[in-house]
Structures are given as structure tokens and as C-alpha cells.
């Protein structure tokens, strides 16, 4: 006996079946297309009021997400789905649509915020969300609502209109009352800074902390400084260290007076200071703790370096390789961070062997790092020390490296002055005796 033709679930017993959303916000029909329904503007059909209505995934009824049924025939409710303004509010949340939207955009907002509409036959359908209601949903209804369709109450609105501009509070960072010195014109204050911050020569030292019990680390190093006699800014000759030398203290007290003076005079203080570094770790520590703007203002640097000698055993060559790499990184970092560098003095003791003492060998690569971004230094003085070569050979190679680092015009002027002094010979003093 042939079985009767199975009818669709929506056609059984004359029920009107609506494809709702089950648990998780998914449709109860696979590959569901909203364009296959009767009304293209509405994604859901009318729901049957019978108690035997179909259930979605997870055993939950296909009831609208969150809310009571609202009859569209009641007064105060909207009946036309193609509205120009839709307001859905839960608590403090308001979403408004301007009147200038097109019909397609209006239909899209209508489908998103309003699930109830009228079909072509004029039948009223059920409505899931209230069009305008300030009453919050109950805990029972809100539990069945998918998370993607719930509104979260917040103090900020989705639409910031022209009338909702929050007042902007601007706080003045300058002090309420300026001192007499700060009220001076900028040119006068800069002239005073130039008189206060004179040329100083500082040797940066790295040593253990004098109070290790105050620090958590077992070994903690700090940077200290020692003042020396400054070099002549014109001839760049180092004065003799013999005799007693009393140097004025560094004008650091003026820098820490206030924030505005610190910001104005910090770069000038670093540009007038001649820094001396004796180890690579001191250089790396100095670049790590100082201000980046202050590093860019440094114009004078002196480096003293002694290379590791070749070890007798190959097991200890690792220490020499690490020392050479640290020396190269220190020179490269000084080139990168000290953009205003103009004067460079290098005193280097070479311990590599065997070498032929030519530019381009491994010992000369850290020095050539200063010429990576082009010759821009005004004065470079390199002194090489090695007992296996004569002093004339060392000076010749040093001048070749200086030519690659210095500015061509500055290097030519310095070479002309050196040749003029050699041709003139030693200066002989003439003594004139007067007899009365």
C-alpha cells in the first residue's frame, strides 16, 4: 500500500510555521534564504499560537528572541515596515536613523531592529522587539535571547549627534605664576644659558654601587664622572694633566630647578660637554639611561679601547670574539644615536695577529662604522698603538681612516695646515740682548 505523500511541516493541520532562531542564533532551517519567504522585507513568518509549535535546536521553542508579543493593530504601534526612523531603546541605548536614508537602507534597519511587519495580503504579523519601550527585559526572556541580538545598556549612545558634543576640558600645563627669569624673552634666556653652561670635559666611569645593600641585585653598577681639563675647541689639543687643577662643578643644579628650564637647557648642556669613555660597557650603559634628545645633541666624544690579544688556547677565543663584537656594537650605536657628533678622538691598542695593517681588516671595521652614513665629522683624531709596526706606518693607516670619516673639505684644510707646519720646520726663538 502506497504511503500518503508527506506534507511540509508548515502545511500540516493548516499551521503557519515561522523559521525562527534556535539556540546560538542559528536558523532552524539549513541554508535558509530570506528571499524565499513571502515578504522580502521581513525575514520571519507569522508564528502559530498553538501549543504544539515546532521547536528549534536544543529543545527551545521558536519564540521571538526576548520580548512579549505586540499586536500591530493597537494604537501607538507602527504598522508600516518601511519607516524612515527606527528607535530601539533598552535603558540608555538609543539608535536613530536619519530621514535621508534610502529605501534599501531603511529596509535593512527595519529587518535588523524590527522583526514584525505586514505582508502583501495585509495580515499583521507578530512583533518580537518593541518599537519604543524603555522597560528592560525580564531575566527569563533575556536568557533565551541570543547574545548577538541582545542590547547592552551603556552610558554612551551609538549615534553622536551635533547636539551631544561633550565639553572639552583643556588643562594648562604651564605654572600659574612664572618667575622673573622665565618671563624674560627667549633670546635673553638663551644667552644666559650659554654663559652658565661652559665647556666641560667629563670622564664617564662605570663601577660597582657604593651601597649594594640598598639594591636587590647581587652585582649592581652605576655611572660616575670625573672632571678633567677641557680640550681647546679650536686646536683640539689636550692640556697637560700635571699640576693641580681646580675645576668648577657642573651646573646641574640649574637643570633640576624646574621642568621648563630642564627642557630648554638640557641639549645645550650635553652639546658643551666633552665625554670620555674607556670601556664598551660604559658606552652601552650611558646610551641606555640617557635621554634620546640629549644623545642627539652630543658633539664631542673620546674613546679609549684596548683589544684582547690572541689566546694561547682555542677554548678561550670566545672571549676575544665577544670583546670585538662589543666594540663594534658600541661604535655603531654611537653613530646611530649621536647625530650631531662633530669631534671624535680614538686611542686604540691593536692586539690582533697576524695582520698586515691595512684598512678593511677586521680590526678597522668598528672605526669605519662612523663613516657608514657618509663623512660628516669636522675633526677626527685616531691614534693606533702596536709594537709590531713602526709609528710611521700606524700614522699613515690612521690618516686613511680619518679621510673616510671626516668631511672632505675639513680634512683637506687640516692636511694643508699639517704640511705647512712640516715645511716651516721648528720655530727658532731669537733672543735680543740689550746693553745699557
Descriptive overview:
This protein has 436 residues and is of the alpha/beta class. The protein has 2 domains: 10-156, no CATH class; 186-424, no CATH class. It has helices at residues 103-113, 139-144, 186-196, 252-255, 259-271, 280-289, 292-296, 317-337, 365-368, 391-405, 408-424, and strands at 88-90, 93-95, 200-208, 221-228, 273-277, 300-306, 343-349, 379-385. β7 (343-349), α9 (365-368) and β8 form a beta-alpha-beta unit. α6 (280-289) packs parallel to α8 (317-337). The protein is globular and about 70 Å long. Mean pLDDT is 71; it is low at 9-19, 34-51, 65-106 and 112-164.
Number of helices: 11
Q: Terminal Cα separation, in Å?
A: 161 Å
Domain module count: 2
Percent range for β-strand residues:
5-15%
Mean pLDDT: 71
Shape: globular
| Strand-pairing-aware structural class | alpha/beta
Region (Disordered): 1-80, 97-140
Pfam family, one: DUF7730
Protein name: DUF7730 domain-containing protein
Organism: Aspergillus viridinutans
Layout of helices and strands:
Layout: E1 88-90, E2 93-95, H1 103-113, H2 139-144, H3 186-196, E3 200-208, E4 221-228, H4 252-255, H5 259-271, E5 273-277, H6 280-289, H7 292-296, E6 300-306, H8 317-337, E7 343-349, H9 365-368, E8 379-385, H10 391-405, H11 408-424
Parallel strand pairs: 3-5, 5-6, 6-7, 7-8
Antiparallel strand pairs: 1-2, 3-4
Describe the structure concisely:
With 436 residues, the protein is α/β, with parallel strands linked by helices. Helices cover 27% and strands 11% of the residues. It has 2 domains: 147 residues, no CATH class; 239 residues, no CATH class.
Amino acid at each position: 500500500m502506497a504511503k500518503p505523500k508527506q506534507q511540509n511541516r508548515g502545511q500540516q493541520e493548516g499551521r503557519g510555521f515561522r523559521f525562527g532562531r534556535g539556540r546560538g542564533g542559528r536558523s532552524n532551517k539549513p541554508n535558509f534564504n530570506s528571499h524565499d519567504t513571502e515578504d522580502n522585507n521581513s525575514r520571519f513568518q507569522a508564528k502559530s499560537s498553538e501549543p504544539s509549535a515546532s521547536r528549534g535546536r536544543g529543545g527551545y521553542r521558536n519564540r521571538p528572541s526576548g520580548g512579549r508579543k505586540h499586536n500591530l493593530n493597537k494604537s501607538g504601534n507602527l504598522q508600516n515596515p518601511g519607516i524612515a526612523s527606527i528607535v530601539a531603546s533598552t535603558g540608555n541605548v538609543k539608535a536613530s536613523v536619519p530621514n535621508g536614508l534610502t529605501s534599501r537602507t531603511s529596509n535593512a534597519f527595519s529587518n535588523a531592529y524590527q522583526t514584525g511587519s505586514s505582508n502583501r495580503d495585509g495580515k499583521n504579523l507578530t512583533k518580537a522587539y518593541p518599537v519604543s519601550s524603555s522597560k528592560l527585559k525580564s531575566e527569563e526572556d533575556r536568557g533565551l535571547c541570543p547574545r548577538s541580538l541582545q542590547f547592552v545598556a551603556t552610558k554612551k549612545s551609538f549615534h553622536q549627534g551635533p547636539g551631544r558634543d561633550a565639553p572639552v576640558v583643556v588643562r594648562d600645563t604651564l605654572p600659574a605664576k612664572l618667575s622673573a627669569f622665565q618671563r624674560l624673552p627667549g633670546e635673553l634666556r638663551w644667552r644666559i644659558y650659554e654663559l652658565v653652561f661652559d665647556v666641560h670635559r667629563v670622564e664617564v666611569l662605570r663601577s660597582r654601587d657604593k651601597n649594594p645593600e640598598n639594591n636587590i641585585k647581587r652585582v649592581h653598577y652605576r655611572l660616575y664622572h670625573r672632571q678633567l681639563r677641557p680640550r681647546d675647541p679650536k686646536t683640539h689639543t689636550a692640556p697637560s694633566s700635571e699640576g693641580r687643577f681646580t675645576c668648577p662643578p657642573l651646573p646641574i643644579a640649574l637643570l633640576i630647578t624646574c621642568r621648563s628650564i630642564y627642557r630648554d637647557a638640557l641639549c645645550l648642556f650635553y652639546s658643551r660637554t666633552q665625554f670620555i669613555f674607556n670601556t664598551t660597557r660604559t658606552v652601552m650603559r650611558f646610551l641606555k639611561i640617557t635621554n634620546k634628545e640629549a644623545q642627539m645633541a652630543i658633539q664631542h666624544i673620546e674613546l679609549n679601547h684596548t683589544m684582547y690579544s690572541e689566546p694561547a688556547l682555542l677554548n678561550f677565543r670566545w672571549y676575544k670574539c665577544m670583546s670585538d663584537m662589543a666594540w663594534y656594537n658600541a661604535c655603531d650605536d654611537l653613530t646611530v644615536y649621536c647625530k650631531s657628533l662633530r669631534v671624535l678622538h680614538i686611542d686604540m691598542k691593536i692586539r690582533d695577529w697576524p695582520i698586515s695593517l691595512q684598512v678593511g681588516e677586521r680590526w678597522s671595521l668598528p672605526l669605519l662604522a662612523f663613516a657608514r652614513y657618509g663623512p660628516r665629522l669636522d675633526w677626527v683624531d685616531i691614534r693606533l698603538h702596536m709594537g709590531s709596526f713602526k709609528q710611521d706606518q700606524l700614522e699613515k693607516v690612521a690618516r686613511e681612516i680619518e679621510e673616510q670619516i671626516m668631511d672632505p673639505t675639513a680634512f683637506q684644510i687640516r692636511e694643508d695646515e699639517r704640511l705647512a707646519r712640516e715645511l716651516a720646520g721648528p720655530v727658532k726663538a731669537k733672543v735680543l740682548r740689550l746693553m745699557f
